[in-house]
């Protein structure tokens, strides 16, 4: 047995190599004390000796390819369409939502040759009828979709990255006046396009979908259309990364300037968790361990591993206070989905007509963006998508033994359905901790740990041959 110490996601974690079944109570008291001292000494030595961050070279190369110039060019081009309101013209070749989505589609299609034909791109459409609220006439809604097919035909996992192409003026029903929409949400679409540009040149076992949705400002209509389609067609979506308002570094009224933090919003558990599922959450104390919350923990650790000078700040809400975003339709259908948004929003440049009033410049203009900040946030998305899509699928049937009272925690699981594994991480945290605090590695399918399940939460994730980790699975009591 040996200890490795690493610093990741702002906390020290331990990687403890254990055998298939590890116990610590076989030695007499004196031997236990000596073992403890030996471990403590080893830990002290390793604290100073070990590499603190281990990165997959392929992902590191992709992250370094994210270009500040590229994301800025994407944003400025989207602003050039004048308005991208869902209610704007769809027939003008240079103005409005129709011209904007055709341009995004053309850029996606330019990436097809480099993908070896694995990337396909199209506009997925539906005709919306007037709803008496934010749609006043029959309107063609189109989501621009690029699908990078996974190389493993047996692996049906799907990972989605999204931003919304549409924008709005002060009046959401105004589809004619100018509306730059640089940060809200050309920034998110730019991140989607840049990830597609880089990742389409690589191969992943699982499928990745890059999508610029429409109708967000009219009530999350494009995301609802896609999420509903996914549910009806039984898509195996494991994670949705939604990017909305992620390219400005300063707030309006508090005047805080910071380009080193980005927020990730995550739901505690799904609205579908009712009946027995809700009872199980209550009985096991898993109110903070739903799919979206586990995804948020994952993106924090992985994003901070690969992107320097960026902290992913977890916010325990599905979205900003009493507001919503395109991840919500997926959450409402039981998928793991989170939202990324800049740390300090500037409301002078959000949902505002372009004007100067009381010496304040209003309007969502590109000059108020920080494109280096957008580059970092895009790189954080890419690192997570790549790590997820390269990793094996999650371990199956993760169980904790509860037949007898013991101060040990006895875990077991089965190998994932897809992907080659070199082992598994067992994750631990105290019940009051927001983040996983310890990581224990094993090549086996069971572990007996000298930590009480009364005092800790546990999780298990698959680890691929290149070190890429799956999402975490929380154990359920054996026999349930």
Determine the strand fraction and express it as a percent band: 25-35%
Oligomeric category: single chain
Strand order of the largest sheet: 3-4-6-5-7-10-8-9
How many helices? 10
Let me know the number of strands. 19
| CATH level 1 name of the largest domain | Alpha Beta
**Given the C-alpha coordinates, what overall shape results?**
globular
N-to-C order of helices and strands: EEHHHHEEEHEHEEHHEHEEEHEEEEEEE
Architecture per CATH nomenclature, i.e. the level-2 architecture of the largest domain: 3-Layer(aba) Sandwich
Alpha carbon gyration radius:
24 Å
Give unreliable regions as ranges.
Answer: 1-51
The H-level CATH homologous superfamily of the largest domain, spelled out, is Zn peptidases
Summarize the structure.
This protein has helices spanning 29-49, 57-65, 68-79, 97-110, 182-199, 221-232, 276-284, 291-306, 328-331, 371-390; strands at residues 3-8, 11-18, 119-128, 139-148, 157-164, 207-213, 236-243, 261-265, 311-315, 337-342, 355-357, 360-362, 396-400, 409-414, 421-430, 438-442, 446-449, 456-464, 476-477. With 480 residues, the chain is α/β, with parallel strands linked by helices. It has an 8-stranded mixed sheet, sandwiched between helices.
């Amino acid at each position: 047995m040996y200890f490795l110490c690493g610093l990741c996601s702002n906390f020290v974690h331990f990687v403890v190599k254990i055998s298939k079944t590890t116990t610590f109570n076989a030695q007499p008291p004196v031997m236990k004390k000596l073992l403890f001292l030996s471990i403590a000494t080893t830990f002290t030595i390793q604290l100073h000796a070990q590499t603190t961050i281990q990165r997959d070279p392929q992902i590191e190369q992709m992250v370094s390819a994210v270009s500040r110039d590229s994301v800025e060019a994407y944003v400025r081009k989207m602003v050039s369409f004048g308005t991208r309101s869902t209610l704007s013209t769809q027939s003008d070749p240079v103005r409005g939502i129709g011209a904007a989505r055709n341009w995004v589609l053309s850029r996606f299609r330019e990436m097809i040759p480099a993908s070896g034909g694995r990337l396909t791109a199209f506009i997925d459409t539906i005709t919306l009828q007037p709803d008496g609220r934010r749609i006043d006439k029959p309107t063609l809604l189109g989501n621009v979709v690029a699908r990078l097919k996974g190389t493993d035909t047996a692996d049906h996992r799907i990972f989605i990255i999204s931003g919304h192409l549409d924008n709005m003026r002060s009046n959401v029903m105004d589809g004619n006046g100018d509306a730059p929409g640089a940060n809200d949400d050309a920034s998110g679409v730019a991140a989607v396009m840049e990830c597609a540009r880089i990742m389409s040149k690589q191969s992943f076992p699982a499928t990745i979908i890059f999508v610029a949705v429409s109708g967000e400002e009219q009530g999350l209509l494009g995301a609802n259309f896609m999420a509903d389609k996914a549910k009806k067609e039984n898509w195996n979506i494991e994670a949705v990364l939604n990017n909305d308002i992620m390219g400005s570094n300063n707030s309006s009224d508090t005047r805080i300037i910071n380009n080193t933090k980005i927020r990730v919003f995550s739901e505690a558990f799904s609205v579908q968790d009712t009946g027995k599922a809700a009872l199980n959450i209550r009985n096991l104390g898993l109110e903070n361990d739903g799919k979206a919350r586990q995804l948020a923990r994952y993106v924090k650790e992985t994003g901070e591993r690969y992107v320097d000078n960026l902290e992913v700040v977890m916010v325990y809400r599905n979205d900003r206070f009493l507001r919503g975003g395109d991840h919500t339709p997926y959450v409402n259908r039981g998928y793991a989905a989170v939202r990324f948004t800049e740390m300090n929003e500037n409301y002078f440049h959000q949902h505002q007509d372009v004007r100067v009033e009381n010496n304040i410049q209003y309007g969502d203009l590109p000059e108020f963006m920080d494109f280096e900040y957008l580059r970092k946030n895009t790189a954080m998305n890419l690192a997570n998508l790549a790590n997820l899509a390269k990793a094996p699928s999650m371990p199956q049937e993760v169980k904790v033994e509860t037949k007898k009272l013991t101060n040990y925690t006895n875990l077991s699981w089965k190998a994932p359905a897809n992907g080659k594994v070199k082992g598994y991480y067992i994750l631990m945290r105290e019940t009051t901790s927001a983040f996983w605090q310890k990581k224990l590695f094993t090549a086996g399918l069971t572990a007996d740990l000298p930590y009480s399940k009364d005092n800790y939460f546990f999780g298990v994730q698959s680890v691929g041959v290149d070190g890429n980790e799956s999402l975490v699975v929380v154990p359920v009591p054996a026999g349930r």
